[in-house]
Amino acid sequence: MKFRPVAFLASVLFAALAARTPAQTTTLGASRVASSPLDAASRTAIATRLAAELRSRYVYPDVGERGAAAITAAAASGAYDRIVDMPAFTTRLTADLRRVMDDAHLVVFDSTSRPPFPVETGLPGEAGIVRADRLTGGIGYLEMFGFSNPWAFKPALDRAMAGLKGSRALILDVRGNGGGDPAAVSYLVSYFLPASKRIEVSSIVARKKGTASVRRKSFFSEPTPTSFAGTPTYILTSGHTFSGGEELAYDMKTLKLGTVVGEVTGGGANPGEQITVGEGVTAFIPTGRQESPITRSNWEKRGVQPDLKATAADALAVTMRRLGQTPAPATVEAASPVSVFSRRTMPLVGSEAMLRRLLANLNAPEPDYTLLPSDIPDAGREALAETHRRLKPLGTPKAIRFRKPDAFGNDVFELIYPDRSFVVAITLDRAGNFIGLIGPDRVAT
To answer: I want to staple 160 with a disulfide (CB 3.0 to 4.6 A). Which of 14, 132, 171, 438 is the partner?
Structure first.
């Protein structure tokens, strides 16, 4: 395998495209709208609303206030007056905020000028899992570029780990992993913990909107079909490893379940959600912080420190030498792998039924919000409303055909009409609620 620093920008793999972090949902696939020249009133409205959201939502109220004060002062001083291009303005806002808040998850972007996210990307793997291989010397290898939500990630991981059963050692490659769902991370960690105990893996401490109070959500180990408890395990990292990818390395290290090999990771431990600011601008605002039950801290700004330092390109070879393989192969291909993972050929339970429910409701003036999780943030309702608008002109298809799961954990379906076809990609949460839909994209004829 050639090392690929892929930024996993999805949430549930529906993540903010401009922020490397787990988000709740997004409006991927929305129609592109041309940006208008930016005027003074729009700049003021965006800066004012963004400042208010930072004060209300950012995980650390004092830091949120610092960022809000910075952009408010900049707007009042005329620092933004010469910016008439929306993407340039959102880039400037991001830079100004990061300068005083120092949070790599925080980003502001112009959603109207971004091209729609394609339904079929051609990226390898399923639900963030790129490959699973048996390497020479009885060593198992699992590469992940992200962590999809458990609805898609758990069945994919279970198949991969079943193929690696019996390995004398295991290598988890997150050198190109940009994050994802913390519940998926904790499920992977569960494979290395004693099956007889329910162990806390991590927590997210999130700020309650508009207050200084917080709430805690803990993630615990779960039963897994097979166990790798006690198996020597190595986690490969790079400077591109971020957010949920870092969490895996941090959890495995602090729980003393594995050895981290490679580079110091990116240093992002503050998850959050997408907020619509207005004028076509969206902000990804960190609303919480990750916390380890062992350290009561995290890797924010510091990154995860490797146990064995090596360049990202050399991390695999260093690990193979550690496991007694000489000469040590530098790539997975050179290690004579036997692939034990391939994409499934059937949809996940509930995905087609949910798609049919969305299509059956197209004549209604509003989407059916009962399809969403009960605790979905405002952005989730906006995403469903956008999905309803995109699907409405299509009408009821003659047939629906499953094509494949995609690399991000979505199920891809073809909507077949008498004279044309479209593809869409849908994802649900573990309870079967709607999370997001990409597309429709016209199928080339």
So the answer is: 132
- Centre a 10 Å sphere on the Cβ of residue 336 and count the other Cβ atoms it contains: 12
Give the pLDDT of residue 115. 75
Which residues make Cβ contacts (< 8 Å) with residue 382, sequence separation at least 6? Answer: 27, 276
Beta strands 421-428 and 434-442 are antiparallel
3-state helix, strand, coil in the chain (%, to 5): 30, 20, 50
The Cα-based distances of 386 to 55, 100, 223, 404 in angstroms read 27, 34, 37, 24
From residue 4, how far is each of 314, 317, 355 by CA, in Å? 13, 16, 33
The number of C-alpha atoms within 13 Å of 181 and in the hemisphere containing its C-beta is 26
Identify the DSSP state of 307.
Answer: S
Rounded-to-10 torsion of CA 256, 258, 261, 264: -40
Is residue 235 scored above 80 in pLDDT?
yes
Q: What is the pLDDT of residues 24-34, one digit of tens each?
A: 333 333 334 44
Q: Residue 436 phi/psi, 5° resolution?
A: -175, 165
Could you tell me whether strands 308-309 and 259-262 are parallel, antiparallel, or unpaired per DSSP bridges?
parallel
What number of CA atoms fall less than 13 Å from residue 82's CA on the CB side? 1
